Amino acid sequence: MREINFDGLVGPSHNYAGLSFGNRASASHAGEVSRPRVAALQGLGKMRRMMELGLRQGVLLPHERPLTGWLRQFGFSGTDDAVCAAAWRNEPGLLRTALSASPMWTANAATVSPAPDTADGRCHISAANLCTMLHRSIEAPETTRQLGLLFADTDRFALHPALPAGIGDEGAANMMRLCPHHGAPGLEILVYGETRPDGFPARQSRIASAAVARRHGLAAERTLLARQSDAAIQAGAFHNDVVAVANESVLLVHEQAFADQGQVYDAILRHVSSATILEVPASLVSLEDAIRSYLFNAQLITLPEGGMALIVPDECRRTGAVAAWLDAATSGNGPVRRVESMNLRESMQNGGGPACLRLRIVLDDVAEAALDQRFLLDEAKLEGIATVIDDRWPERISPDDLGHADLWEDCRNARRELLDFLGFAA
Ligand SMILES: NCCC[C@H](NC(=O)CCC(=O)O)C(=O)O
C-alpha cells in the first residue's frame, strides 16, 4: 500500500480577507493584495515535485466562488450579480465569506482511515463540517460531492457525511496514524482541543473525534484521543498539524503539542515498538518559531527508494532556530534523509503550509484503480492545468476588488475552464 496526496488547487478567488480568528498568519496579512495566479502555480509546483519524487499525486477542485446560492439564504435575490452586489452593499463580510478560496486546504476536507485500520476492511472517509469558522462551514456540501465522485466504489470506500454543525470537525489535520508501514494496521491518534474563555477557539471537538473513530470502525486498542495543549492553541496552532506530523513509524512533534505528551508517546511505542519520536524541545524551537516557520506543517513522505523526505515551507530556512534544527536532524543517522524547501508563500500568508494543502489516502493498487481517475495527475494534466491558470487566474486581488462584478465573472470563468479541461461538466 502507498500514500497518494490529493492537493487542493488554489482557486481563482484566493485573497487576504483575514477571516480566520486564531490563525495568526490570516490575521496579520488581512487587507493585503493577493496573487491568485502565483498562488495556484506555487501549489501546482508542490504537486509536480511530489511526482518527481516518485509519489502518486491527485488534485481536488476549487469550489464555486462566489457561492451565490449560499448568499441567497440571507434574502438577497435577483441575478447572481445582483445577489453579490446587494451582499457587498449590506453585509460585505458575507460576500467575503462567499469568495474565500479556503477549500485549497484539503487537510481539512475529511478524515481518512485506511482499510487496514477499519472493522469492515474498507477505507473510511468522513467529510469535515468545519463549522467553527463561517467561511469554512460553507465547504462541506461541495467537498462531499467531490469525495462522492472520487470514492464512488462502495466495495472499497465508505464515505460518511459531515457531522452536525456545532460539533467542530476539521478533518485529517487533526489525525495522525502510526504504523510499522503503510499497509499494516495503524494507531490512529485523533487530536481535539478545548476552548478556554477569552482565548482562541479550539476547532476540533472531542465529541467529533470520538464520532469519527466510531463511524470508521476503529479498534479501541488502536485508537487514541489526545488533547491539544492550551499553549499550542493560544500560540496559534489552530490545528494539530501545525505542531506535529507523522508518517509510518515516525512522529515529528513539538514538545508542547499535547496536554499529556507522555500518554501519546506511550501509546505509540506500545503499538509500534520501533517507532522514532523526533521531539523538538521548546528550548531549541519555541512554539512561536514553530508557528511562524510551519516546521511541523511539513509533509513527511516515504520515498520509493526507501527513507523519508521532509517537505517544508521555505519560511523554515529563514527562521534561524528552525534552520539549525533541520541541519542537525539531517546530518545524523535519523529517519529523515533529506529536506526539501518549497515556496508556498501565498498560501502560507493565510496560515496554510505544505501539509494543509493535501489530503492523504493510503491504498493499494486495486483501490487506486477504483478511484475516479479524473482526480489523478500525470504530466499532461499538470501542463494543462498550468495553462488554464496562466490564462484565467486573476493576477492580483485587492480588498476592494472583492466587490466588483468583473472579479466574480473572472472567478466563474476560470473555474469553468478548469473543470472542462479535467472532464468535469460544470
Ligand atoms: N489548514 C490550514 C487552514 C488555513 C485556513 N486559513 C484561512 O481560512 C484563511 C482565510 C482568510 O483569512 O481569509 C484556516 O484557518 O482554516
TrEMBL record:
Keywords: Arginine metabolism, Hydrolase. It catalyses: N(2)-succinyl-L-arginine + 2 H2O + 2 H(+) = N(2)-succinyl-L-ornithine + 2 NH4(+) + CO2. Coiled coil: none annotated. InterPro entries: AstB_sf, SuccinylArg_d-Hdrlase_AstB. Pfam families: AstB. The keyword GTP-binding does not apply. Signal peptide: none annotated. It is an enzyme of class 3 (hydrolase). One of its GO terms (molecular function) is N-succinylarginine dihydrolase activity. GO terms for biological process: L-arginine catabolic process to L-glutamate; L-arginine catabolic process to succinate. Substrate binds at residues 17-26, 108, 135-136, 203, 241, 350. It comes from the Bacteria. HAMAP family: AstB. Catalyzes the hydrolysis of N(2)-succinylarginine into N(2)-succinylornithine, ammonia and CO(2). PANTHER family: N-SUCCINYLARGININE DIHYDROLASE. Homodimer. This is N-succinylarginine dihydrolase.
